[in-house]
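Re: the 276-residue chain
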Amino acid sequence: MGKFIRIALLVLIVGVAGSLFTIYQADGFSFKTVKINDQKTVKASGIDSIEVDTSSIDVNIVPTKGKDIRIELDGKVSEKLKDKIRLRVHENGDTIKIDIEERNSFKFGVTIKSLDLTVQVPEKRFENITVDTSSGDIEVEDVEADGFHFSASSGDVTASNLKAASISIDTSSGDMVLNDLQGSLQGEASSGRIMLDTKKITDDIEFNTSSGNVEIESAVQPDALILEFDGSSGEGNVDLKGMDYKVKEEHEIRGSIGKNGPKLIVNTSSGDFDLN
């Protein structure tokens, strides 16, 4: 039995050594990177909706003084991937769809990919702007649309100074960092935190999390507000003057300020809730 084990180990070692040599010969251990910069331009006059779909690439949507929509893929990748990654922009009526083609990008060994996708949009109000990504971060600022939808798995979502009728954000382990958003707001997170900093709560807000905390800071006391918080093991803490509480317990808070105010609904499992 001992002899058999020694022979099996020898065969395994030889096999691993052969595989490593093959990977080395194929440049699998190369740390060389090359710069990628791919740009495309679309006339914005007939475009009402923008859809972005990526995997591990960070997405930035920012305003521009120009009249066209400019899309840029920029960063560095392993040399062996330089011909495998391509920016694609499709026009379909009043909608443009943006994604990244990664052709046969699986390789043995070390691969490096550090890319940013930037979409510059003119100062107009779009109908819909949608961004879906897996492990990439999403950052959007100073843009207007009737509806925004952002979805990320392990990536963070940062949104600032957005004007909309409705904003919807979904994450798993990624955090949400939200600043001065106008429009009804809905956020869903698992273990990610939700942090909202606003001048004043004027629109309906609904946040649902599992283990992630929810933190809301309002610079100005709301004139009217309807508050509902439900937590399983999560604790709620509210520091607002003039709140008429119907229920104020560790895991449940219900109250209101004034009349006919916007609704603030927060549901957590083990996550805590703070409103100041």
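Residues 1-30 form one domain.
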